[in-house]
Amino acid sequence: MALSKLPLSTIFFLLYTSLFTISQALSSKIAVAQIKDQQDNEPFVGINIGVDVSNLMSATELVSLLQFQKVTHIRLFDADPDMLKALAKTKIRVIISVPNNQLLAIGSSNATAASWIGKNVVAYYPQTVISAIAVGDEVLTTVPSSAPLLVPAIESLYSALVAANLHNLIKISTPHSASIILDPFPPSQAFFNQSWSSVMQPLLQFLSKTGSPLMMNLYPYYVFMQNKGVVPLENSLFKPLTPSKEMVDPNTLLHYTNVLDAMVDAAYYSMKNFNFTDVAVLVTESGWPSKGDSKEPYATIDNADTYNSNMIKHVLDRSGTPLHPEITSSVYLYELFNEDLRSPPVSEANWGLFYANATPVYLLHVSGSGTFLANDTTNQTYCIVMDGVDSKTLQAALDWACGPGQANCSEIQPGENCYQPNNVKNHASYAFDSYYQKEGRAAGSCDFKGVAMITTTDPSHGSCIFPGSKKITNKTRTVVNTTTPSNAAGGSRLISFRSSRISAMDKALQAFLTIIFSILLHIPFVVS
Predict the structure, then answer these.
(1) Does position 495 have pLDDT exceeding 80, yes or no?
(2) Which of 155, 234, 246, 285 is catalytic?
(3) pTM above threshold 0.70
């Protein structure tokens, strides 16, 4: 039927439905744009720093380690003044935390909240780049008695940030355990535990209003351990899957190739059930233990290496999730150090990438995904002597390496390239690296009874080329940090986000005007 012969009421009905369709499309686009605006210009992998460690290095040494490892984002479980001072002028972005035992005071007193912000934020910002404040940690599930104070504490701290004119620069949220989400798979059926609705509803309102993220601690390791026989290990470790092993949400038909994406989408669906679609998910903890007791046979170095390496690559590849392929959640890896002072089980003390002396627990395999962690490419590691080892102990280790260890020690003989400087430390470093490379950089091959350490700094000097260097091409020496874009890159990324939003709105407006123009052309005939 021609439009000119339609009744005016029908035309206006068509106009209304067209406007409704366009508004729905625009709302979806705007919600995604709002989520993107909450995030850094690029997704990143940060790292948690727990301090239940024997002989913890000084704050200055720790920050030097972070810089050497190319770490750009960290999360502290407190607001340690020594760390905040040491981080000044480093451009490392830090989440500071309000410990659970301070919630009562801050949630009950605006003056206490203002004092906390003055002491722990204003005193250091902007020389120290504080990106967010985590208020408590898994409060709903670990200290439920403090739950009624959680949102008041957050709002009081926010008011203090407003007073300091920092509320647009520093976000405030609170990390949650994954257990606050019930029925997490399939993700489309997930929902927040309704017993916490009185907290989650106002919290999500706050996060939406302030553009702050929903912080979630998500551990596929625990999902696997609690669902052995149901959740395959491969899905938990980001390993490549055959289509038959992919998890499929029967309600959406979305395919999930890994557990972490499913957990992130479960959080998005849970928020959607509360009618919030503009809050981003920030994964404040995720990792895999490298050692466990007899009840934790999957806490191994190989599995920890596989999970963390694949997780880092997944984030830096900007893969998104099946529900939101256009949004990649940033992740804070748990954690920097093995916290040997933690209580049992054994795994609790073995989540770290490094021992307290900065020796790697294992080496990540994420070559080609940028330079987050300078020890991430096994093509660039060497074995050298640790500082402070006495000459007698070193000589014994050197004799073993060049003898029973069958290291190639020809280059440290008189007249050869690595003979100078002629001292036991220099010769032992070369011999250690020769043995380490010969053994394929295997775990335990750089120890020598505790006198050796792995480094990513090439120890070659002058004409003395260490064995590991001979396997490195000029191309693999090139360092390109993709985790922290330059101002120029960040600017261009922001422009592209804006352009995509404008483009979407232009198309919607064009369609709307076309409909209006078509109707207006025919209205005179209808009226007449």
Answers:
(1) no
(2) 285
(3) no
